[in-house]
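Dear Dr. H.,

I hope your travels went smoothly. While you were away I took the liberty of generating a structure for the chain from your last submission, since the lab meeting agenda had it listed for discussion. I wanted you to have the full record in hand beforehand rather than looking at slides cold. The sequence, exactly as received, is reproduced here:
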Amino acid sequence: MYVPRAFERTDPAELHAFAAAHPFAVLVGDRDGAPFATHLPLLIERETGALVGHMARANPHWTALNGKPVVAVFSGPHAYVSPTWYETENVVPTWNYVAVHATGTFRVLTDEADAVRVLLETVREYEGSSEGAWAPDAGSAFFRGLVQGIVAFRVEVARWEGKWKLSQNQPPERRAKVRAALAASASAEAREVAKLMDHE
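The corresponding predicted structure, in token form, is as follows:
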């Protein structure tokens, strides 16, 4: 990912927190000599920073990835920035956004116990512990059938990259105008970008 210094984020805790808050990632790797992408939720192992997840066994992506490099792309709020907001000449449109990339090695988890663990951890993460939360019966034939239909994996992350492109390369008065325009937008996502700009 191209990351100019003004937009760079390197703190692992911040990058992990962002990925955990925006877990539906795009996993990109090679298949038959061409890029191939799968959209799926990923969990972060807090102790190691590795990513774990699963995909449908019918998805051909995993068959080409074991031991190979992949990139997981986590995307956050984003918004168009109009040059009219700057109230000056010779400026152009742009886009403000936040993104995190995790690059590492894909490993298929071949042990059925690992697949069960990944499925149960994923369910617990997103169902939560509230009353009425769905909890699968891990010993049921139905659940075992689910396990047979997926492939669990782990990505051993070698590099985390963060890009917070929030008009930091603009003079303070322009940034203030961009922030105000985004905060007044009808788009909830644009308003989220405005909030992020408050911390820059």
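Two observations you may find useful: Strands lie at 8-9, 24-31, 34-41, 43-44, 51-56, 69-81, 94-109, 150-165. The first strand starts at residue 8 and ends at 9.

With kind regards,
E. W.
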